[in-house]
Amino acid sequence: MVSVKALGVSDATPVEPVVIAKPKKISVHAHHAGHRERLRQRAKAGGFVALPDYELLELYLFRTYPRGDVKPLAKSLLTRFGSLGGVLGATVEELATVPGVGETAAMDIKLLHEATLRAGRDKIVKRPVISSWSALLGYVRVALANESREQFRVLFLDKKNQLIADEIMNRGTVDHAPVYPREIMRRALELSSSNLIILHNHPTRDFSVTRTPIQPR
């Protein structure tokens, strides 16, 4: 038997408790907040052009989803619609089929799409369309390249070939968009349009633009 006295320890000797520090836990929120800040700093340092599509979309979704990890959602959207343009061109109903996308997120994405369309339209508004063929083609690609159904659009021009209005006259199926010449002429008279540019798309991956005339059926 070992006594306290034999160890040279008396009852008066103070014994200091040993405190073992617990490892600090990093919250999921703090981790995501750090990732968001790092992504913002990368965009600030290298410019948005340096970001891949999924990170650009992720950065935009930060505004819709103040918390949480939206990288999987951004990647799911790109997988579902094939490209960033496909995501922007999808309808609200189509966007809502992706798990995690609610009405608010779908509307925010369509807001970005509309802003893109208007930016492209500004390049040709009140400019001679014939002499700005490249700007016209750029707008047409943005407006029609990612549409999942055929559209029949008409650009109404004045006598100087300046754009008065760009209107969708009809929406069709994946391979058919009916149009009525009488309606086009009626609208042209309402707008006092002197010239027309008629456009329609084929929902495929081929984004090339041709000048092939539309044949009446």
Notes on the protein architecture:
- The structure is a single chain.
- With 217 residues, the protein is mainly alpha-helical.
- The protein has eight helices and three strands.
- The protein has helices at residues 28-46, 53-61, 71-81, 84-89, 92-95, 103-122, 133-144, 181-190, and strands at 151-157, 163-171, 195-200.
- It has a three-stranded antiparallel sheet, covered by helices on one side.
- Strand 1 and strand 2 (163-171) form a beta hairpin.
- The protein is elongated, with a radius of gyration of 30 Å.
- The termini are far apart.
Task: Give the topology.
Layout: H1 28-46, H2 53-61, H3 71-81, H4 84-89, H5 92-95, H6 103-122, H7 133-144, E1 151-157, E2 163-171, H8 181-190, E3 195-200
Question: Could you name the key traits of this structure?
Answer:
10% strand; mainly alpha; elongated; 8 helices
Give a quick summary of the entry.
By secondary structure, the chain is mainly α.
Q: What is the strand content?
A: 5-15%
Strand count: 3
Which structural class should the secondary elements be placed in?
mainly alpha
Secondary structure: helix percent: 40-55%
Strand ordering within the main sheet: 2-1-3
**What is the count of helical runs?**
8
SSE arrangement, N to C: HHHHHHHEEHE
Task: Output mean pLDDT.
Answer: 77
Shape: elongated
Query: Rounded to an integer, what's the Rg over CA atoms?
Result: 30 Å
Largest sheet report: 3 strands, antiparallel
Distance between the termini: 111 Å
Residue stretches low in confidence (pLDDT < 50, at least 5 long) are 1-9, 23-28
